[in-house]
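User: Structure with phosphoenolpyruvate, tokens only please.
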Amino acid sequence: MPDLRGLGVSPGRTAGPVLLMAAAPALPPPGPPLSRRAGTAAVAAALSAVAAELDRRAGRAGGEARDILEAQAMMAADPTLLQAAEEHVVAGMDAAHALDTAFAEHRAALVAAGGYFAERAADLDDLRNRAVAAALGMPMPGVPDPGHPFVLVAEDLSPADTAGLSADVLALVTEKGGPTSHTAILAKSRGLPAVVACAGALALEEGTLVSVDGSTGEVRAGLDGPAAEEVRRLAEAERAELAHSSGPGRTADGHPVKLLLNIGSAADLAARAEGVGLFRTELLFLDRRSAPAFDEQVAAYAEVFAAVPGAIVRTLDAGTDKPLPFLDLPAEQNPALGIRGLRVDRLRQEVLDTQLAAVVEAARATGAEPSVMAPMVSTPREAADFAGRARAAGIRRVGVMIEVPAAALLAEAILAEVDFLSIGTNDLGQYTFAADRQHPALADLLDPWQPALLRLVEMCAAAGLAAGKTVGVCGEAAGDPRLAPVLVGLGVTSLSMSAVCVPAVRTALAGHTLEECRTLAKAALRPDNPGPR
Ligand code: PEP
Ligand code: MG
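Assistant:
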């Protein structure tokens, strides 16, 4: 098998055996009717295989994951489901179609019952896929859990899949996905090397040894055991060397640039940095079916504040590829352009109020003084409303993210309402270029070296300088060691990134004076700048 190349989106190298994440099975055309005995035995075997697999996984999981898996195993063992599938077999269907129909009926009944039952309907889709795969003799869909380290290869992964990965996953390789997709971001936050948009990855054979380079995007296949061992040894040595890097962010001539961390929970606080610039609170609750209680939120935030008292908390950024099922938001034609981020407040005001109160309580309990900022702010009016709510709740330092071009264009007016700006270049790139950040074929438009994006960054930084307020970057661009000096040259005052990116960015800044950064920025702003792609 030839070597493959995709987009390296989370740095680091490793090697290990490939395991494929099977896709949901498509139903083949109906097969011939089965005898009553063979048919009922086939549907019963499929359902009990699903229940047994989920029970096995529950036994290996902990906490809430175990409860969810156990509940799903019980649903698979529900006798009414088995009975319905048996009836369809008796009426002439093959096992896969009988199961598919039984699940569809069960799902419709739950939706019709409403409330708590309707919330459970989505759980049935995963069970349906597993049961149909078992009936067709195909591998079970979902993330494999073999009990040994492996490289996970999939067509695509959702943020919820990625957040729930076991420690056995060495690296991720996907055929789909963009450079700033949330899956890539989660991989980075977990220090997992990841390559996305890797054509041909699904043709890799299960068990074959591959090496993965999450910086260059290279996936080499067909390694033998000693070669894989050597890749892991070298990668470990590199990691140890980088871990020695420490100290504040400074250009060669001493201009300070705060190096901050992007985190999804206290577990991501691994690197030496100068604070937390983006606490993506929604990542705490991705798999939740009921709203996180006030006390639970207080505990999660307090864990971060106890370690980093000045952390910047981003209020929930739900929507598009990070749906929070408990919000029960209506389905939309264009979710990325719809109710997401701060816009959820238009429908569900209590969500933001509860979160702000929980932040204040966690701060009180830990003696911390965190800041808060809102995602997806589009107008000065929205910024003013958010700042008013946050200050009324008792938070002193309030900012907003600049992720929508409209907000960048009015950065000065927005800064009149808040204390700081944090530029989310991932979404700012997506919305400036009308290019889905998860689209593997649009990586060139999503490249943060695009001069149009850099011009918006410059406008925000200039507004910050004029107002004497800080303007940081917290999108993936901040963690790119080649781009970091350019961003500093444009005038940003802090860079916030995943822990794995901090040492290389620190070294890159130390290699340039502020004047050199400005020269680089000037060149990067030229409309014909192709960037070092
Ligand atoms: C961004 O959009 O750049 C950002 C930091 O927010 P997220 O990636 O979580 O959407
Ligand atoms: Mg964003």
